[in-house]
C-alpha cells in the first residue's frame, strides 16, 4: 500500500483495538498464573513445615527469599524493558518462573525449595516491570486506570486460585503435586507471549513523546519527582502489610482459630473465595472510580486509594480480634475490597507521572522499593514476632502500616498535579 492510498479510520481503529485487547488478555492471564504460583506455598506451608521440620521464622524465609530476588532483579528488567522488545522479557520470564515452580515440587530439602523460590523471583522480574508500560502504550491516558485494573484483577483471582488449588491438591495428593500443577499454565502462556504485539513506546502520549531518554537524565528527573516517591511510599506500606497477611493468614486461621482442623485445606478454599470476590469487585470498582476521579481532578485516583487504605486499616485489626468466625471472614472481605481498590489507580499514577521512555525502569524501581521495605521483610518479621509472642499479635500489628500508607497516598495526590505536566514535557 503506497502513501496515497487512503485507510479507513474505522478499520484501522478496529485492528488496533483487537491487537491491544489480545495483548492485554495475554498479560492478564500471565499475571493470574503469577499470583497462583506465588500463593500455592502459603496454603501448603503447614505440610512443608511438617516434612522439613522448620519453624515459623524459617518458613517466612520462603516468602522473603523470593521477594528479595524479585525486587533486586526488577530494576534490571525495567532498564532492559526501556531498550529491547518487551515481549521477549515477558515470554522468557514466564517460562523461567514456571519451570522453577515445577521444580519446587521436586525439592527434597528446605535449601532446595529456597533455591527454587529464588529462581521464580528472577523469572517474575523479567515481566513485572514491563507489563504496565506495555499497557500504557496500548491505551490512552483516560482509559489507563480501567485497563490496568483489568490487568490487576488477576491478583485476587490468581491468589484465590493459588489458595484453593494449592489447598485441594495438598490435601488430596501432596504439596509436591500442587507445585507441579502450578507450573504448567505458564509454559503455554510464555510461548504465546512471543507472538504478542509490541507497541511503540509513548504511542498513546502524543506525537511529541520521546521514545528514548538518557538514563542519567531520566534518573535525575525521577529523583525530583515527589509524586512518584509519595505514591511509592504508600504502596510500600500497603505491600508490607498485605504481603505478611497473605502469607500467614491461612496458618493463623488453622492454628489459633482452630478452624476445620480435620480439613485444613478448607481454610485455603474459603480464604481464597473471599479473596477472589473481594479482590475482583474491589479492582473493577477501583478502575471505574479511578478513571472517573482522574477526570474530575489530577490525582483523583490516588485520593481514592488513600481513602481506601484509611478505611481498610480498622477492618484488618477487627479481622483478628472478632471472636465470631463469620464476622472475622466478613472483616477480611471488606478489608480486601478496600485494599484492592488501589490496584489500578496506584499503578496508573506511576506510569502517568513519569516520561514514556522511562516507565519500565520507574516501575522496576517501584517494585524494588515496595518489596525491599515491604513484603520482603514482613513474612519473616511476622514469623519472628509469632515465635516470641503469638501469631495473633503479629497479624494485628499489620493494621498500622495500612493506615500510614493511606496518609502517604493522600500526600501523593496533592503532589500529582505538578508531576504530570513535567512528565509530559520530558516525554
Report on this model:
- The protein has 427 residues and is an all-alpha fold.
- The chain folds into 2 domains: 20-201, MFS general substrate transporter like domains (Growth Hormone, Chain: A), CATH 1.20.1250.20; 214-426, Growth Hormone, Chain: A (Up-down Bundle), CATH 1.20.1250.
- 81% of the residues lie in helices and 0% in strands.
- It has helices spanning 9-52, 56-81, 86-104, 110-128, 131-138, 141-152, 154-172, 175-193, 215-223, 226-255, 265-296, 300-319, 325-340, 343-352, 359-375, 378-388, 391-396, 399-426.
- The model is unreliable at 1-8 (pLDDT under 50).
- InterPro entries: MFS, MFS_dom, MFS_spinster-like, MFS_trans_sf.
- Keywords: Membrane, Transmembrane, Transmembrane helix, Transport.
Task: Return the average pLDDT rounded to an integer.
Answer: 84
Radius of gyration: 21 Å
Helical residue percent? over 70%
The beta-strand count equals 0
- Percentage beta strand: under 5%
Count of alpha and pi helical runs:
18
CATH architecture group name of the largest domain: Up-down Bundle
Structural class: mainly alpha
Order of helices and strands: HHHHHHHHHHHHHHHHHH
Annotated CATH topology of the largest domain:
Growth Hormone, Chain: A
Unreliable parts: 1-8
CATH superfamily of the largest domain: MFS general substrate transporter like domains
The coarse overall form would be: globular
Number of domains: 2
Biggest sheet layout: none
Distance between the termini: 31 Å
CATH class annotation of the largest domain = Mainly Alpha
GO molecular function: transmembrane transporter activity
InterPro entries: MFS, MFS_dom, MFS_spinster-like, MFS_trans_sf
Domain Major facilitator superfamily (MFS) profile: 23-424
Organism: Corallococcus interemptor
Amino acid at each position: 500500500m503506497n502513501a496515497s492510498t487512503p485507510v479507513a479510520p474505522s478499520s484501522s481503529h478496529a485492528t488496533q483495538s483487537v491487537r491491544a485487547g489480545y495483548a492485554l488478555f495475554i498479560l492478564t492471564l500471565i499475571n493470574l498464573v503469577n499470583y497462583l504460583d506465588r500463593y500455592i506455598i502459603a496454603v501448603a506451608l503447614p505440610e512443608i513445615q511438617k516434612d522439613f521440620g522448620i519453624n515459623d521464622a524459617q518458613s517466612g524465609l520462603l516468602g522473603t527469599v523470593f521477594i528479595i530476588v524479585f525486587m533486586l532483579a526488577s530494576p534490571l528488567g525495567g532498564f532492559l524493558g526501556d531498550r529491547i522488545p518487551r515481549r521477549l522479557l515477558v515470554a522468557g520470564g514466564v517460562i523461567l518462573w514456571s519451570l522453577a515452580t515445577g521444580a519446587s515440587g521436586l525439592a527434597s530439602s528446605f535449601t532446595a525449595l529456597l533455591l527454587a523460590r529464588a529462581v521464580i523471583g528472577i523469572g517474575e522480574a523479567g515481566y513485572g516491570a514491563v507489563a504496565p508500560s506495555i499497557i500504557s502504550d496500548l491505551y490512552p491516558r483516560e482509559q489507563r486506570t480501567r485497563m490496568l485494573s483489568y490487568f490487576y484483577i488477576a491478583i485476587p483471582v490468581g491468589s484465590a486460585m493459588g489458595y484453593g488449588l494449592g489447598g485441594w491438591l495438598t490435601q488430596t495428593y501432596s504439596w509436591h503435586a500442587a507445585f507441579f500443577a502450578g507450573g504448567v499454565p505458564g509454559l503455554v502462556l510464555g510461548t504465546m507471549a512471543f507472538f504478542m504485539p509490541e507497541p511503540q513506546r509513548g504511542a498513546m502520549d502524543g506525537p511529541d513523546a520521546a521514545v528514548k531518554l538518557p538514563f542519567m537524565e531520566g534518573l535525575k528527573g525521577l529523583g525530583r519527582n515527589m509524586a512518584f516517591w509519595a505514591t511509592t511510599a504508600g504502596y510500600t506500606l500497603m505491600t508490607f502489610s498485605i504481603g505478611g497477611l497473605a502469607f500467614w493468614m491461612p496458618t493463623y486461621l488453622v492454628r489459633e482459630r482452630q478452624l476445620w482442623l480435620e480439613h485444613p485445606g478448607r481454610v485455603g478454599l474459603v480464604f481464597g473465595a473471599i479473596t477472589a470476590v473481594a479482590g475482583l469487585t474491589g479492582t473493577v470498582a477501583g478502575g471505574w472510580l479511578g478513571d472517573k476521579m482522574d477526570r474530575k481532578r489530577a490525582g483523583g485516583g490516588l485520593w481514592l486509594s488513600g481513602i481506601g487504605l484509611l478505611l481498610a486499616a480498622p477492618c484488618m485489626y477487627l479481622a483478628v480480634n472478632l471472636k465470631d468466625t463469620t464476622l472475622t471472614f466478613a472483616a477480611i472481605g471488606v478489608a480486601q475490597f478496600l485494599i484492592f481498590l488501589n490496584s489500578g489507580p496506584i499503578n496508573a499514577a506511576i506510569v502517568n507521572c513519569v516520561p514514556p521512555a522511562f516507565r519500565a525502569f520507574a516501575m522496576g524501581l517501584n517494585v524494588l522499593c515496595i518489596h525491599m521495605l515491604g513484603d520482603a521483610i514482613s513474612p519473616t518479621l511476622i514469623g519472628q514476632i509469632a515465635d516470641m509472642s503469638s501469631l495473633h499479635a503479629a497479624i494485628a500489628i499489620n493494621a498500622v502500616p495500612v493506615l500510614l500508607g493511606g496518609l502517604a497516598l493522600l500526600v501523593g495526590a496533592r503532589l500529582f498535579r505538578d508531576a504530570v505536566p513535567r512528565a509530559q514535557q520530558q516525554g
